[in-house]
Amino acid sequence: MSKPIPVHAEMNQFAVDTEQLLVGGKTLDQIAQMMDQQVFYAYDKSVVKKQIDKFHTHIPKAIKLHYAIKANPYPPLVNAMKDWVEGFDVASQKEMLIALQSGMPVADISFAGPSKQVAEIRAAIVAGITLHVESELELKRAIEIGEELNTKPIVAFRVNPAFELKASGMKMGGGPKQFGIDEERLLEILPDLDYDKISFRGFHIYWGSQNLKVEAIIDAHNNTFMLAQKLVDATPVATVTVNIGGGFGIPYFAGENRLDLAPIGENLTVLLKDYPKLADIELIIELGRYLVAEAGVYASRVTDKKVSRGHTYLTTNGGLHHHLSNSGNFGQVIRKNYPVAIGNKMGGAHIMEKVTAVGPLCTPLDTLADKMSLADPQLDDWLVVFQSGAYGPTASPQDFLGHPHVREILL
Ligand SMILES: *Cc1c(COP(=O)(O)O)cnc(C)c1O
User: Terminal CA-to-CA distance of the chain, rounded, Å?
Assistant: First the structure.
């Protein structure tokens, strides 16, 4: 008996017209002509909007949605999202400027990051955004800079929770971590801080990323509410806001399915009832890839097709210098294929051919798709990598080997 072939979750977020994939209503050929580029990232605004709508359908209205800009800081995308989410979370001074220039109110912009430089702390205080303070020294620095500027820094504490996420995915809390202040230490120092010298906002409890397990997320939310209540109780001044983390994942690999938000929302509704004191505070969920990854494709042209000892290779004009995460070198332990298709042969009856698609870099790491069945791939076809709207160009070593940088478009 042969094993069933694992399939990727259906990439049905884009329309298809006579076999042509449409992004924002345009075929890849049309996008190539508009941009004068034969390799690019294209993002579909309507798909981003649909993900945000899905969030609001299931998650209680009392919980606000923030976008973590590091997932995709392309300014036209950030500007479009400004009207669709209730705040931005930034992780550098450059992201802060993108967020500010989008027109998002400063009160709804926060800055987290484990090694903020003094100049970044100063920039955040002058701008008037919320600092997610990650250490006791950072608090001291913020207070000193605030005194110098005659401005109270707006401070929320990033907490390293004692609980750990009960699932795979990227753990960013529990045990020793470089992020935030350990919950037990924070509970110790909270009663006696110099609250006169800061404008105290609240807490940021971040426990992980790229999670597709409903049970694990529910468990993390239960733990987060319990911890938030303890922190609020230990603080002698009023807590304005608690960021309860994010971590909603999207399916990248064969066998993974889209996250069902319904039970997560139902559990949050129960938690809001069980913790009435927290329900009166502004609660925030911050998401990056969940909002934008499904909306993006990375499209490159097939430039050669050759056979090596019985195995067919496609070469393309795109590669890991543009899309490190698809190559498997951005946190994957064992390389797995992202969903890939021939963007001008969607549906229809084609002979499927098992091929490996590679980029132009002189390293075996530069693999776009390994031994995948694609629809009759030929020279000049479009090789499309789905789920590419997050951690794309800005998470890739674009200068490696000196090929041209990739361009982006939002449609
Ligand atoms: C990276 C990060 C995010 C975004 O993670 P996603 O997996 O893209 O949702 C959100 N918040 C913090 C603090 C982060 O470090």
Answer: 46
CB neighbours of residue 64 within 10 Å: 17
- The pLDDT, as a whole number, for residue 8 is 76
Nearest protein CA to atom 4 of ligand 1, as residue: 288
pLDDT in tens, 357-367: 999 999 999 99
Report yes or no on whether pTM surpasses 0.70: yes
What number of other Cβ atoms are within 10 A of residue 54's Cβ? 15
The pLDDT tens digits for 14-47 are 999 999 999 999 999 999 999 999 999 999 999 9
Ligand 1 neighbours by CB, cut-off 6 Å: 68, 70-71, 89, 112, 206, 209-210, 246, 286-290, 390
How does strand 296-308 pair with strand 311-316? antiparallel
Interval between CA 112 and ligand 1 midpoint (Å): 10
Q: How far apart are CA 386 and CA 9, in angstroms?
A: 11
The token pair at 402 is 């000196």
Ligand 1 atom closest to Cα of 132?
13
> 208: which strand partners?
171
Residue 167 has pLDDT above 70, yes or no: no
- Angstrom CA distances, 194 to 197, 205, 305, stand at 6, 22, 67
